[in-house]
Amino acid sequence: MPSAETVAREDLILFLNAAFACTGQREFYHTADEQRVSVQFLHAYILGNYRRLYARTLAAGINDFNAAEIILNLLSSGWDAPESFRAEENTLLTAALSRLPPQRGWKLITRLRQERINNRRTRALIRDYTLKQRDLTFQTVKYRRHVRAAALHAHLSLPGELPAFLFGEREQVFQTPLLETFRQARYSHQAVYDLPFTVAQGMAAKHGIAPDIFLKNIAPRLTERERLRLQNRSGGKIEFRPDRLPLTALCSYVLSLPMAERQERQDELTGWLDVAARQVLSRRPLPLPAGRTAAVLDNSYSASGSREKRRRPLALALASDGLLRSAVPEGEYRAFWTHPVSSSLMVSAQGQTNLTDRFLDALEWGAQTVIVVSDAVENDPPGVFHAAYVVARRLVPGLSVLHFNPVFDAEMLTVRALSPLIPAVGLRDADDLPTALGFARFAAGQTEVEELEQYLSGRVQTFLNKRAVHVEA
C-alpha cells in the first residue's frame, strides 16, 4: 500500500499537470464538457485535501483558466482558510487576479456575482482590482457589463463620470472623451471607429455597417492578436505584423499559411521564429543538461487539435523546436518529427503516431537527452515506446527522456504518459517550457512532498515580487 507521502505527491502532480494543460476547451479526443467536468473534480479534491498547496499553485505557472477556477474556489470557501495562512492566501488571490488578462478578470468577477459569492474578502478583492486599474475608463467602456457587475456586487464608489455612465441616463453628455464617444456612437457612424474593436463591432452591427467597410475603417485601432483573428475574415486585407506575436501565436500563424507561401518566405519566417524564441529564453533559460539533445515531435493527425484549439498541439511542437534550437549549442540539437519533413516550417498534421522509430533515430544520432512533445496516443504500433525505453536506458548511460504533453485527457484526469517510467508534464504554451522543465523532476517522483512544498513556496515569493515591481512601475 502506498504511503500517505506518496499519495500526496501523486495527487499534487496530477493536479499541477491538469492546471498546466487543461483549458476547458474541446480537444481532439474529448469534448469541452468532458474537460470541464474532469478538471472541476480535481479542483474540488485538491482544495478539500491540500488547501495551502492549492493556493500556492497560483504561483506555479499554471494557465489562466485554472488560475481563475482557483480564485473562485478559494473565495467561495474562505471560512476554511487556516488563520495562519489567511494573509498569504489573500496576497496570492490579489496578485493572481491582477495578472489575469482583463477579459478573464472581469468575467471572473461577473461569475462571482452570478454564484452569489459576496463575503467581505471577495468585496475587498473586487474593490482592489477595480480601483487600481490604470485604464479604468477604457475598460469600463470595453467591459461595461462586467464592470457594472463589479460595482454592484462590491458596492463600489467609482471615480469621475463612471457611475453616471454605468447607471445614469443614456442621453447624458459626458466630459470624459471616451465616454462621450461611446454615447455619440449610438447615433454617429464615424464615432464607432473611435471605440475599442469589440465595442465598435457591436455598434457597427446595430448601425448596419457592411463588414468590409467596418474592418477597413477600424483597422488602425486593432491589436496584433485582433489582426491575427481577422486575417481570414478580411481576406488578408488587414495590415498585420506577425513578428510582434509571442512565440506560440506566431507558430499558429505560420502553420495557417499554405505550404507554397511558407517555402517562399522561409528565411523571413525563420527569422521571426528565432527572435521570438530568444525573447522567451531571455526571460528564463531552459535548464538543460550538457550533451546532445534531441526532440521527438508529434505531427500526427491528432496534432491538428480541435475547432476551438486549431493546430494548437502542432504549434506547441514547432515552438518547442524553436526554443531548443536557440537554447542548445549549434550541432548539439536535432529535431525528429514523427512524419519527417525537410524543414520544420514545412510540418503539417498527418497520419498516425509513430514515436518509437523517431526515438530510436534520436538515440542512433547520439542524443543523451530526448524531449518528447506529444499527446501520447501512440498507435503505430501502440504501446511500443515503453519497451524501447526500457532497453535504451540499459544501453545508453545517463539517458534522460522528458515527455511534455499539450493535451489534457479527461478520462484519465491528467495528461497521458508514454511509459510509467516517464511521467508526462502538461504544457499549454511555449513560454511555459522552462517552468515545465523545472517541474519535471517532481513529476518523476524523485522528491518528497516537503521539497515540492519548498519549491512552491519559492515560486510564491518570486510571483509576489514580480507583482510588486509591476505595481510600482
Summed up:
The protein has 473 residues and is mainly alpha-helical. Helix content is 57%, strand content 6%.
If you had to describe this structure to a student in words, what would you say it looks like?
The chain has about 475 residues and is mainly α. The protein folds into two domains: about 5-205, no CATH class; about 285-450, von Willebrand factor, type A domain (Rossmann fold). Helices cover about 55% and strands about 5% of the residues. It contains 24 helices and seven strands. It has helices spanning about 5-20, 30-50, 50-55, 65-75, 85-100, 100-115, 120-130, 135-140, 145-155, 160-165, 175-185, 190, 195-205, 210-220, 225-230, 230-235, 245-255, 260-265, 265-285, 310-325, 355-365, 385-395, 435-445, 450-470; strands at about 295, 335, 370-375, 400-405, 410, 415, 425. The strands form two sheets. It has a five-stranded parallel beta sheet with strand order 2-1-3-4-7, sandwiched between helices. A two-stranded antiparallel ribbon has the order 5-6. A hairpin with a 4-residue loop joins strand 5 and strand 6. Helix 5 packs across helix 24. The longest helix is centred in the C-terminal third of the chain and has 24 residues, at about 450-470. The protein is globular. It starts with a helix and ends with a helix.
